[in-house]
Structures are given as C-alpha cells and as structure tokens.
Specification:
This protein is an alpha+beta fold and 278 residues long. Helices cover 42% and strands 22% of the residues. It folds into two domains: 70 residues, Multidrug-efflux Transporter Regulator, Chain: A, Domain 2 (Orthogonal Bundle), CATH 1.10.1660.10; 178 residues, Regulatory factor, effector binding domain (Multidrug-efflux Transporter 1 Regulator Bmrr, Chain A, Alpha-Beta Barrel), CATH 3.20.80. It contains eight helices and twelve strands.
Length: 278
C-alpha cells in the first residue's frame, strides 16, 4: 500500500542516525513521519524528507538546541536562524574567553610549581628580570601585617567574592599578590596596600599593569616569616647599591595546602623593582 514510503529503520539507516532519534524528532515536532499505521503505530517516511533531516543535522552542528531548531522549522523564518546564530556566536566567544582565562591560569600554576621545584633554598637572594604582568585587585581594608593570618584570610575572602562578582574563575585566586607602597617599604613600615591576582593578560578594568624590569627577590616557604625576610631584602638592596623603584610585592607562587595541615602552606616570592647607579 505504501511501497513508495520508507519504514523508520530504513530511513534511519539511510541517514546514519538511530531509530530512537527519529522517534524523538517526531515527538519534538521536528520531523513527522509521512504516514503512521493506525493499527501498528509503525512510522513511514518519504525519501524527500531527507532534506529536512539534513537541515536538522546542519543546525545541530551549528550548536543549536532541538528546541531552537523546532522554533525555526515551525516559523520557517531565515531571520530567526540569523538571530539564534548571533546569540550562539556570542555564547561561543564567551566560552572561548573563559577557556583562555582558564588556560592562562593553568599555565601559570604549572610555571609556579616548576619554579617551586627549582627554586633556591629559603633565604637566598636573587636579582631577576620579570616580564610585564597584569593584575586585578582591591585595596586592603585592614593591615593584616599588624594582625595574624586570620586577618589575611578575611582579605582573601573579600578578594575572591569580588572576583566572582566580576566573572573571574576560581582558579585565578591561587596566584595572589599583596603590596606595600614604596614609601612605606623604604621606611620599614609594613602597611598592607592592595591584594590582587595576576591575570596573565589585560582584563577589562584590570586596573594595574606591573611593569617589566629588574627585581630584587627572595624566596621563602613560611607565611609567618614574610616580615623578617622582607627586612632582609630591604637591607640587601641597600648593601648592593640597588635603588628601589616601585612598590614591594609578596607573591604567592603556590598555595596548594597538600603537604601538611598548616593553615596556609605557601611558597612566596618577595620582590621589589630596582634600578642601578651607573
């Protein structure tokens, strides 16, 4: 009776899709069979319905959902396809930006751990060239140097809250930096200035570029020893004839608390930009 029609199995085989997929398309209104046997419920399709299947496959490849495809097919409006694709295009770009940010953060974490493995012993001073870096941060609400680690934790929690509000992924907040203004550091005053992350690239509203240059550095692995080694760093610069040329930075190179049960298992690089007397 319906020799010119194809049973659902044959239609699925010709289009390299499954029978359940054709049934789903029927239920969603994407592709109705040309004829359904009222007694058996068997579905039959016309060969010219392959064009509709090709269109569905194309729109799926473009990333459109079945609900969006159904809307397009029901309205038969090319303008709707354009609108949905424009929305999808922006979504893809946003995903690309997020993946790029995540990729940058992962690469920085790898480099930080590599530096940790290859770093000199705690207390070793070095003069290093550091490339330009980009930072996003906030002013410190309290001077955690005058308190204990709990004050630092409060600043860190506020930074992470603000990062989340501004669309930064959580992984960013493991490469933390804090600053002391140049005048305070040179005077030996430990007053927390800003707490920030290194983003790896210029973000909208990043707020700060940390310029490239020569930095006097010292590495350590204990949060509680920062002030002691910062003073030693300041003294080393004076004895070496280095002129301080910017704010002091304490950078958390790694902060993965996997080695012990201490409140913060950190590997720190204390650094300050310097110039030289010719």
């Amino acid at each position: 009776m319906h020799e010119e029609l194809l049973p659902i199995g044959k239609m699925a085989e010709l289009n390299r899709i499954s029978v359940p997929t054709l049934r789903l398309y029927d239920e969603k209104g994407l592709l109705k069979p040309r004829y359904t046997d009222p007694q058996t419920g068997y579905r039959y399709y016309s060969i010219d319905q392959n064009a509709r299947l090709d269109m569905i496959a194309y729109m799926k490849e473009l990333g459109m959902s079945l609900a969006q495809i159904a809307r397009v097919l029901q309205k038969e409006a090319i303008s709707l396809i354009e609108e949905l694709l424009a929305q999808k295009n922006e979504q893809i770009h946003q995903q690309m930006r997020q993946l790029k940010a995540q990729h940058d953060a992962v690469e920085r974490a790898i480099l930080s751990i590599e530096r940790y493995r290859k770093s000199p012993a705690t207390g070793t001073f070095s003069l290093e060239y550091i490339d330009r870096r980009y930072a996003w941060g906030i002013p410190c609400a309290a001077n955690f140097y005058a308190d204990d680690v709990h004050s630092y934790e409060a600043e860190l929690r506020e930074l992470r809250r603000r990062l989340e509000e501004n669309g930064f992924a959580q992984i960013h907040s493991y490469n933390i930096g804090t600053t002391i203004a140049q005048a305070d550091f040179e005077a030996g005053r430990f007053v927390a200035g800003r707490i920030f992350i290194f983003t790896g690239r210029r973000e909208a509203g990043a707020g700060q570029i940390v310029e490239s240059g020569m930095y006097a550095c010292v590495y350590l692995d204990n949060y509680d020893d920062e002030i002691h080694y910062a003073r030693l760093l300041l003294d080393w610069c004076a004895r070496s004839g280095y002129r301080i040329a910017g704010d002091y930075i304490c950078e958390v190179m790694t902060g993965f608390n996997v080695f012990d049960s201490d409140p913060r298992s950190m590997f720190l690089r204390l650094q300050v930009p310097v110039t030289f007397q010719k």
